């Protein structure tokens, strides 16, 4: 049994180090991708404050399909190139301070105001994205980007 409890007073860099260490421990010896995404979504929900949706979209037959997440019900399918997740599916992290200013933003949850979406790549191909939404403007910054990009690298051969 694992008990990963974030320190609410830790600096952001330490928080991401602990999150990624926990994600590594939970997924290292498990081959089931859904189980790994589910546990990591739960970890992100515990570790990342001021978020209203955290989870995964998987690349299936050339489009993003909803994966494990923590939050309200979400859009099930997102075409590549559409919205923030679809833009990230092209291979580049999307750090959006105000989703309402993002052309083509898909509003699955009207409360979301900022978003960070990081592609997970295997052999240079996007296999999934990690999606973080917040009800606050400009919730995510470069430290968040770096921490979630490290998480994506850990998961690249585990999902």
Contiguous helical run count: 4
C-alpha-based Rg, rounded: 14 Å
The arrangement of helices and strands along the chain is HHEEEHEEEH
Q: What structural class should be given to the helix and strand makeup? A: alpha+beta
Report how far the terminal alpha carbons are from each other. Answer: 21 Å
Shape: globular
> What oligomeric state do these chains adopt?
single chain
> Strand sequence of the main sheet, in spatial order?
3-2-1-6-5-4
Question: What features would you describe in this structure?
Answer:
By secondary structure, this protein is an alpha+beta fold. 32% of the residues lie in helices and 26% in strands. The protein has 4 helices and 6 strands, in the order ααβββαβββα. The chain has helices spanning 12-27, 33-47, 83-88, 142-155; strands at 53-60, 63-71, 77-79, 94-96, 114-122, 125-134. A 6-stranded antiparallel β-sheet has the order 3-2-1-6-5-4. The longest helix is centred in the first third of the chain and has 16 residues, at 12-27. The protein is globular and about 40 Å long. The two termini are 21 Å apart.
What are the main properties of this structure?
159 residues; alpha+beta; 6-stranded antiparallel beta sheet; 6 strands; globular
């Amino acid at each position: 049994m694992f008990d990963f409890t974030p320190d609410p007073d830790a600096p952001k860099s330490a928080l991401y180090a602990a999150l990624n260490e926990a994600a590594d421990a939970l997924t290292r010896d498990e081959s089931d991708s859904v189980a790994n995404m589910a546990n990591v979504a739960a970890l992100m929900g515990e570790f990342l404050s001021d978020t209203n949706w955290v989870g995964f979209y998987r690349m299936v037959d050339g489009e993003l399909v909803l994966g494990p997440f923590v939050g309200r019900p979400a859009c099930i399918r997102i075409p590549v190139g559409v919205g923030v997740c679809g833009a990230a599916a092209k291979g580049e992290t999307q750090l959006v301070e105000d989703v309402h200013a993002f052309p083509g933003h898909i509003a699955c949850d009207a409360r979301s105001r900022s978003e960070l979406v990081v592609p997970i790549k295997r052999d240079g191909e996007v296999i999934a994205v990690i999606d973080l939404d917040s009800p606050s403007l400009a919730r995510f910054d470069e430290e968040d980007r770096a921490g979630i990009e490290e998480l994506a690298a850990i998961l690249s051969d585990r999902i």
